[in-house]
Amino acid sequence: MNNAADEYILPGGGASISALPKISLHDHLDGGLRPQTIIDLAEEIGLELPTTDAAELATWFTTQAESGTLVDYLKTFDVTIAVMQTRSGLYRVAREFVLDLAADGVIYGEVRWAPEQHLSAGLTLDEVVEAVQEGLEAGVADAAAEGRVIRVAQLLSAMRHADRGVEIAELAVRHHGKGVAGFDIAGAEDGFPASRLADAFDLLARNFVPVTVHAGEADSLDSIKSALFDGRALRIGHGVRVAEDINTQSEDDEGMYVTLGPVAEWIKDRQIALELAPSSNLQTNAWGTELSDHPFDLLYQLGFRVTVNVDNRLMSATSLSRELFLLAEEFGYGLDDLAQFQLNAAAASFLPLDDRDDLIEQILVAFERA
Known about the structure:
- The protein is α/β, with parallel strands linked by helices.
- The chain has one domain: TIM Barrel, CATH 3.20.20.
- 45% of the residues lie in helices and 15% in strands.
- The chain has helices at residues 35-45, 54-65, 70-74, 77-82, 87-103, 125-145, 165-175, 198-206, 221-229, 262-269, 278-283, 296-301, 313-316, 320-331, 335-348, 353-369, and strands spanning 22-28, 106-113, 151-159, 180-186, 212-215, 235-238, 246-250, 256-260, 273-276, 306-308.
- The strands form three sheets. Strands 1-2-3-4 form a four-stranded parallel β-sheet. A four-stranded parallel β-sheet has the order 5-6-9-10. A two-stranded antiparallel ribbon has the order 7-8.
- Helix 5 (87-103) packs parallel to helix 6 (125-145) and helix 7 packs parallel to helix 8 (198-206).
- The protein is globular, with a radius of gyration of 19 Å.
- It starts with 21 loop residues before the first strand and ends with a helix.
């Protein structure tokens, strides 16, 4: 399994991608557990696992996740969510999550998760949010003690196939500015458009809580349209299928002629960030089976605000540094390209403007020195 301790060097460039400051926008709390932590917490609650060997368990998660469909991919979360039902379990997972981000050079991370999935042991929605916040703050403090400065925020996800959208939106409003930076909807996408949660999105808009929406991963352009217009999304989670609205035609020696459809044009012109997660997108067959098939480079070259993300580090056996390395290796990106991806993410984060500017300055200085 690849982890934050692995160092990734820019192909042909010598710079350490791992050491450079990075911004993580799309990273699921229940998809980033350490295998040994799962084993420890499972033992405490009497949960049977496929194996109690950490390395073998890591391999099991990756193998299961490589099913080729989002629905099967999501089944691996039955295990991780099961060990995240107590205050102590949530605290530990959140604390270690931050430490792993910091070890990978992340200086700002938005941590998304669905509180409604962590109530089986009797905790309330507010209690689970508070437990995660305590763990995140402990992780930030422990990282600082190790000389690593990191800032994190929660994104509260409502499960799009459930009927608790307004309840989770109200939860986000209550905790907004107290550790929670925004709102998301997640889960099975096909058949569950953002319009089903219209009342929740109205509530969030009235209370100035920013929104990102999973869309264009397992469903078509209509899902992205619903995220934009029903969800008022400021970012699109994955959004890889926006490429369906881009027509490319070869012009012999003239190169490529590209036309954008209305959805793609809207997203590009308004610089709505795409939270692309290449390894995860390939696992769920969101677009192709090889990285060379992924439209990341097309979107980047056309001027879309692309960001690089891990989605679920455990299921994809990855880290943000590894994702950047794979893209650089496949598409020939250099240091300036990797810097642009971080600048895109900083600009699209749900932080106040002054804080976004601080992140941008950190990125510019560090990449110039690399």
